[in-house]
Amino acid sequence: MTPFASADVEARFGAYPTQVRRKMLALRELIFATAASTDGVGEIHETLKWSEPAYLTQQSGSGSTIRIDWKARTPDRYAMYFNCRTNLVEHFRSLFPNDFEFDGNRALILQLGKHLPKGSLAFCIRASLLYHASKRAAMFMPSHERPRASGRGRQASRVRT
């Protein structure tokens, strides 16, 4: 297990019920393992944001924050949260519609009684940890190589003459 750098984060994990703690620690380890095996991510900074364990690419600035948590009001579920101002969860929904439940554009919902879909989760973690680096790289691509926007929710503006 990756040692805790923060006593506050360690205490948060210690406060989870035993079954939940095991699942949350598995998510935590998957985040650290995925980061370690992904070029360009660098060291992960673990902290609390909104009293939830949060993982940032503070050193490299390559990614978007990932948070994980369990809520007593939904005792059989726990979640991995992503920045709701990104298109990450929308992208994950299109790729893995049967692997997760989704909470709007902000979270993947997991069931305590089910196995983690580690391959799908690792993909989602990697995408988030490289989110900003990917956007920067796309800026420097020749225009003919850039991915096209989906166009959903956008309308071309027309100027009438």
Short description:
With 161 residues, this protein is of the alpha+beta class. It has helices at 7-15, 18-36, 88-95, 118-129, 131-139; strands at 45-49, 52-56, 66-70, 77-82, 101-103, 107-111. It has a domain at 23-128: Aspartate Aminotransferase, domain 1, CATH 3.90.1150.
Description:
The protein has 161 residues and is α+β, with helices and mostly antiparallel strands. It has a domain at 23-128: Aspartate Aminotransferase, domain 1 (Alpha-Beta Complex). The chain is 35% helix and 18% strand. Residues 137-161 have low confidence and may be disordered. Helix 2 crosses helix 4 (118-129). The chain has 5 helices and 6 strands; from the N terminus they run H-H-E-E-E-E-H-E-E-H-H.
Report the uncertain regions: 137-161
- Determine Rg (CA atoms, Å): 18 Å
- Any idea what the shape is? globular
Which sequence of strands runs across the widest sheet? 1-2-3-4-6-5
The percentage of residues in β strands lies in 15-25%
CATH architecture label name of the domain at 23-128: Alpha-Beta Complex
How far apart the termini lie comes to: 66 Å
Task: Quickly list its features.
single chain, 161 residues, alpha+beta, Aspartate Aminotransferase, domain 1, 35% helix, 18% strand, globular, disordered C terminus
Task: Give the helices and strands, then pairings.
Layout: H1 7-15, H2 18-36, E1 45-49, E2 52-56, E3 66-70, E4 77-82, H3 88-95, E5 101-103, E6 107-111, H4 118-129, H5 131-139
Helix pairs in contact: 2-4
